[in-house]
Amino acid sequence: MSWSMFFSEADSITHDFAPPSDDNPITGVRSKDIFIVPENDVTLAAETNVFAVSVEYRLTPEHMIPACYDDSWAAMKWVSQHANGEQGTEPRLKTHADFSRVFLSGDSAGANIAHNMMMRASMDEDKLGDGLRLVGMALIQPFIGNHEPDRIWSYCCPENPKSYDPRFNPAVHPNLLSKLVCFKVLICTGGATEDGHTMRP
User: Fold this and answer.
1) What are the tens digits of pLDDT across the range 160-175?
2) How far apart are the C-alpha atoms of 108 and 198, rounded to whole Å?
3) Is the confidence at residue 135, as pLDDT, over 90?
4) Domain extent listing, the chain
5) Which residues form the active site (predicted)?
6) How far apart are the first and last CA of the chain?
7) 163 is a catalytic site residue
8) Spatial separation of the C-alpha atoms in residues 55 and 107, rounded to whole Å
């Protein structure tokens, strides 16, 4: 369950392999390049020429909804500070990301969050400013539902456990989908369960 923002790189930079880093003493974060096909030196971000920001959000059951959406929106706002000439703190993001071509992507619950971040940005673009242009999203096995009750959603979202919550069931308010600011959408699913829900890992 993850979601990411992808930016085309604004300029051509050399992608040298980065060995695994030690834990950051402040954040505990480690980073490294992952070789997808070692014999061909294929790494995902380098070969697709994108700058990827992966969002770590609070999980249930320790943190109920809307914690995951709040954390993700904070990440969107953080990125927008870099795009709008504000005091963004990540120099590589300011130097190399092309904020005019931003995609959101996620799988399972992460796809639900990516979709909801796109919907929130579409409802009020001013919240992210003019510098960040969302052009598409890719949703892999999205955790979304229909009019049927869902035990997982009901547990994770005690404030609104019904299936008519548009965060879980986008079809509840179909007019919202017509307001999407992006013009490219890719949805990948593996079929449906007997109760009509999108299959989830």
Assistant:
1) 888 889 999 998 888 8
2) 9
3) yes
4) 2-8+51-188
5) 108
6) 9
7) no
8) 12
